[in-house]
């Protein structure tokens, strides 16, 4: 996965007043924590957080935090676990980073990317996405940024499940094989078309049967 580097500074104050002053100066309060790290309060540039927020899904990129603690520099390889944003003010209020180890398995959610055209849709059906994100587990370096699924084989009322998807060695899904990811449902238009086709086929069959009976009668 892609790695983005951003600078961060250790902060000592956690109340609302200092947080407002940080935002006024172009920074946002944040925290980094992990299995092997105690939580550390940080301040991070708003422009960096917006760049991450706008560019990627929250857990599908590595973030290398260059942390400055009063002149003492450390690094933390992390993922963005949560970000709190104010939609009205278009500002980022807070961010949570989770420190990871490249040698230990990690579980994240990655987006589903459906590709291809389902024959069932061309027949009037509707492709319904049941899972927009899937949980995968494995070593960080092996984790995919997306799970790409080809739906070009799906007909009406057919589904693709987790058990149908193959991942690279060492990566596994957290959910069970029977979980439906996408399904082609029958719409009213498709039902009407199917009904019309059935009536037409029935009429043609009856016409053939009647014609055959007339021919048989004429021979007598």
Distance between the termini: 81 Å
Mean pLDDT, rounded to whole units? Answer: 84
Stretches with pLDDT under 50, minimum 5 residues: none
**CATH architecture identity of the largest domain:** Beta Barrel
Largest sheet: 6 strands, mixed, barrel
Given the C-alpha coordinates, what overall shape results?
elongated
Proportion of helical residues: 25-40%
Which class of secondary structure composition applies to the elements?
Answer: alpha+beta
H-E order: EHEEHEEEEHEEEEEEH
Question: Which fold does the CATH topology of the largest domain refer to?
Answer: Ribosomal Protein L25, Chain P
For the CA atoms, what is the radius of gyration? Answer: 28 Å
CATH homologous superfamily annotation of the largest domain:
Ribosomal Protein L25, Chain P
- As laid out across the biggest beta sheet, the strand order is 1-3-2-6-5-4
Number of strands: 13
Given this structure, which CATH class of the largest domain is correct? Mainly Beta
What count of domains describes the coordinates? 2
The helix count comes to 4
Q: Oligomeric state of the chains?
A: single chain
Percent of residues in beta strands?
Answer: 35-45%
Describe this structure in words.
This protein is an alpha+beta fold and 220 residues long. The chain has 2 domains: 98 residues, Ribosomal Protein L25, Chain P, CATH 2.40.240; 83 residues, RNA Polymerase Alpha Subunit, Chain A, domain 2 (Beta Complex), CATH 2.170.120.20. The strands form 3 sheets. Strands 1-3-2-6-5-4 form a 6-stranded mixed barrel. Strands 10-7-9-12 form a 4-stranded mixed β-sheet, with no helix packed on it. The model has no long low-confidence stretch (mean pLDDT 84).
């Amino acid at each position: 996965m892609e790695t983005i580097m951003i600078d961060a500074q250790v902060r000592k104050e956690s109340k609302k007043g200092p947080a407002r002053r940080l935002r006024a100066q172009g920074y946002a309060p944040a925290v980094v924590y992990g299995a092997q790290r105690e939580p550390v309060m940080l301040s991070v540039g708003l422009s960096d957080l917006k760049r991450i927020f706008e560019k990627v899904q929250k857990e599908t990129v590595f973030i290398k935090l260059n942390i400055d603690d009063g002149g003492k520099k450390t690094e933390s390889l992390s993922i963005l676990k949560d970000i709190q944003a104010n939609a009205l003010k278009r500002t980022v209020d807070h961010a949570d980073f989770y420190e990871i180890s490249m040698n230990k398995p990690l579980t994240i959610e990655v987006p589903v990317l459906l590709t291809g055209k389902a024959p069932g849709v061309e027949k009037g059906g509707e492709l319904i996405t049941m899972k927009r994100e899937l949980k995968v587990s494995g070593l960080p370096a092996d984790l995919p940024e997306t799970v790409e699924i080809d739906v070009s084989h799906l007909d009406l009322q057919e589904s693709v499940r987790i058990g149908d998807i193959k991942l690279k060695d060492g990566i596994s899904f957290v959910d069970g094989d029977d979980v439906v990811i996408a399904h082609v449902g029958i719409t009213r238009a498709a039902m009407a078309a199917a009904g019309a086709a059935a009536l037409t086929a029935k009429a043609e069959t009856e016409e053939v049967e009647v014609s055959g009976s007339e021919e048989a009668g004429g021979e007598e």
